[in-house]
Structure formats: C-alpha cells, structure tokens
Specification:
This protein is an alpha+beta fold and 272 residues long. The chain has two domains: 54 residues; 196 residues, no CATH class.
C-alpha cells in the first residue's frame, strides 16, 4: 500500500509539472501585448494641441536631417496593433505604420512606404483616450506615424529621436501636411529649406521657432501591439511540446512497469 501511495504522489507531482509546462507553452505561443510609443503622462503647463494638421513620424527627428529609423521605444514589432492611446480631446487623424524604402543621407532625405493606416475622428473631455484599431498588421522595424490633429505635445524640442514634424514641401511654412494615402503609398521627407532637396520631396520639416525649436516634438501617443512570438520563442514552444510528450510517455512506462507485490490484489494505476 505504501508503494501505491508513493506512486500516487509521484503521479500528482508529475501532473503539476505537466500543467505548468502546458501553461508556459500556451503563453509563449500567444505572444505578448506590448506598448510602443511615447510615455503616457499627463502633460505639464507647456502642453500644446495642434490647430493645423502636420505629418508626424515618432522618434525619427534629427537636427541634421530625417532618420531612416526611429527610437527603440517607437519601433514596431511584428504583430497586430490593438489600439491607439493619446492625450487630447477633439481629434481627427490617420494612424500609420511606415517601412523604409530608400535612404539618401547625402540629400537629407528618407522615402517611406505606408504599410497600414486607419483614420479616427471625434471628441471627448481632455484626458487620455483609447481607440480600438482593427486590421492593422505591422512588421518588425516599421515606424509609427500619424497625420492630423488630436494628440497633445510638449517640450523639450528638437532633441534627437524626438517626433519629426512635417508640412507639405510645396509650402512647409504653412505648417500643414496633406495626409499620405493608404497602404502602398510612398512619400519622401526632408529638411526645411535645404537647397539639396530633391524636387520630388513630398514633406519637409516645419519651420523652427527662433530660440525654442519646433521641428522635433514629443507627442503623447502610442499603440498596444499583440506581438508575434520571435523564432526563438517558437523554438522554445517546440522543445516544450517535445518535453511534454516525453513526460507523458515516461508516466505510462513508470506505472505499467511497477508490479504489485505478491499477495496484493488491486488495480494498476495509470495516468491514461
């Protein structure tokens, strides 16, 4: 009887291990929801809401010229955007995911392709807003952007990897940017007033305000992304499944191979 009890205890312990392994595998296979964007904090007294709609690429600003990449916090992983969050009230903007098509540092230009987009409009009491996003698939390395008004921004200005703010190249001093089109649309961004700019440039940095800066801002906006597991995670899932199968097989062998003592009339115990 003591032997049978020991087998029962071992069976229970192994079952707990199996449950733990299954839970870990399920969590790894599902991936995680991660926040990408600027820190969601209540802005200070210097907060400003746009009255004229610019084009903004998060984390892409550099005083010497637009960057081909954005800051780490603003770079999207592979996955699906679940929602967009921002601080504001009245809003009307299009959210974009962009991929780099061509980098031309000698002309201070970058060319991007629209990977995904979704438009939002409405109003709410001033504060944090969360809007659901659908069908917005992104790939690792994509940049986050928006065109329109709604999210507040605040100083400091013109710091590297702040949010690059653009207007139409034909008249950047107007501060206004015509929103890019949907997926498949390509456009080129460049410096404000740079004589080397290609005539095909679509957007330039907006003008800087003397003594304060204005081209690189910090908008209070970001997105939640349900990230697809990395290949290393998928490998871990596969190994976990193999371990689980081996454990199940070992349990069966353990119980079948243990014979009851002579004189004991009972039942063999098995997990199956």
């Amino acid at each position: 009887m003591k032997k049978i009890n020991r087998l029962l205890v071992r069976s229970m312990m192994k079952s707990k291990v199996v449950v733990t392994v299954v839970a870990s595998i399920a969590a790894a296979a599902q991936g995680q929801t991660v926040y990408i964007g600027n820190t969601l904090v209540v802005p200070g007294p210097g907060r400003i809401a746009d009255q004229i709609p610019p084009l903004v690429i998060l984390g892409e600003y550099n005083p010497a010229g637009p960057l081909a990449t954005s800051s780490v916090n603003d770079t999207l992983p592979t996955g699906t955007v679940q929602d967009v969050q921002f601080y504001g009230d009245a809003y009307g903007f299009t959210l974009y995911a962009l991929s780099l098509v061509d980098s031309n540092p000698s002309l201070n230009e970058q060319t991007f392709d629209v990977v995904a987009s979704e438009t939002f409009s409405g109003s709410a009491p001033t504060g944090f807003q969360t809007l659901p996003v659908s069908g917005f698939s992104v790939t690792a390395g994509d940049l986050l952007a928006f065109a329109g008004i709604g999210p507040y921004y605040q100083p400091p200005y013109d710091t590297p990897n702040s949010d690059a703010t653009y207007g139409n190249a034909a008249d950047p001093s107007s501060y206004a940017a015509t929103a890019p089109g949907g997926p498949g649309t390509q456009f080129t961004v460049g410096l404000n007033g740079d004589p080397n700019l290609n005539p095909n440039t679509d957007y330039d940095y907006i003008p800087n305000l003397q003594g304060t800066g204005n081209q690189g801002r910090t908008y209070i906006i970001g997105v939640d992304v349900e990230a697809v597991p990395e290949p290393s995670t998928l490998l871990m899932v596969a190994l976990g499944m193999a371990v689980l199968a081996a454990m199940r097989s070992r349990q069966t062998v353990d119980f079948v191979s243990r014979r009851p003592r002579r004189g004991f009339r009972g039942f063999l115990i098995s997990d199956h």
